[in-house]
């Protein structure tokens, strides 16, 4: 009997609100971000699911989203593994810059290429492909074996680290993954087959607010 994998993107952070490139910088959640995490946690609680283990990144916006979700589940003491492998994509020299300022400095087209291409990184940073190159091995060695043993696994991470996982799980092309935006605080519930392919996927919440 295979298990369940739940992915949750962290709620809105201070820098999301200020339109800044965040990457590996470590701002916390906004009041809206806290509310998004609470809503996602309640949606999970309503399913009756109980987790065996949780994974999150080395950044507090993901860690605090996880903490809020676990509080809603009554699982505050759940074993949690934190790892940089699940961190957001590193935006390098763009980190901390306002997106409009970055466009003024490098040009709209260049910034768009960095943000929306699959394999062209910003200066000193990572492309989406680079992000996947650290997320995928971690998933295969640390997360997937637990799911295949029948455990229920919760992962609270970031837009791009989770897009890397969704790309593999949903078998998306690099063109398709570039069009995918994951809503903040909205749990994606996967059950996997014994061969690690997806048996079912359920998104708990309204995706119309995706950004």
Automatic annotation (TrEMBL):
UniProt keywords, alphabetically: Gluconeogenesis, Glycolysis, Isomerase
Coiled-coil segments: none
InterPro entries per UniProt: His_Pase_superF_clade-1, His_PPase_superfam, PG/BPGM_mutase_AS, Phosphogly_mut1
Binding, substrate: 9-16, 22-23, 61, 88-91, 99, 115-116, 159-160
Transmembrane helix recorded as keyword: no
GO molecular function: phosphoglycerate mutase activity
NCBIfam families xref list: pgm_1 (TIGR01258), PRK01295.1 (NF002339)
Record function comment: Catalyzes the interconversion of 2-phosphoglycerate and 3-phosphoglycerate.
Protein name in the entry: 2,3-bisphosphoglycerate-dependent phosphoglycerate mutase
Source organism per UniProt: Neorhizobium alkalisoli
């Amino acid at each position: 009997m295979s298990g369940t994998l739940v992915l949750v993107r962290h709620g809105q952070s201070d820098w999301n609100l200020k339109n800044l490139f965040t990457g590996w910088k470590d701002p916390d959640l906004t009041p809206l971000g806290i509310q998004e995490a609470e809503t996602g946690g309640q949606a999970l609680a309503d399913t009756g699911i109980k987790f065996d283990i949780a994974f999150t990144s080395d950044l507090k916006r993901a860690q605090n989203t996880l903490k809020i979700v676990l509080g809603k589940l009554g699982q505050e003491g759940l074993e949690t593994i934190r790892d940089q492998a699940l961190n957001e994509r590193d935006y390098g020299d763009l980190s901390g810059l306002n997106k409009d300022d970055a466009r003024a400095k490098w040009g709209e087209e260049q910034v768009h290429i960095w943000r929306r291409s699959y394999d062209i990184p910003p200066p000193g940073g990572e492309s989406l492909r680079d992000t996947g190159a650290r997320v995928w091995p971690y998933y295969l060695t640390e997360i997937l074996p637990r799911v295949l043993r029948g455990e229920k696994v919760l992962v609270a991470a970031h837009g791009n680290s989770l897009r890397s996982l969704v790309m593999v799980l949903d078998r998306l092309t690099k063109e398709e993954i570039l069009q995918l935006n994951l809503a903040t605080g909205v749990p994606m519930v996967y059950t996997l087959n014994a061969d690690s392919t997806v048996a079912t996927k359920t998104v708990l919440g309204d995706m119309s607010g995706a950004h």
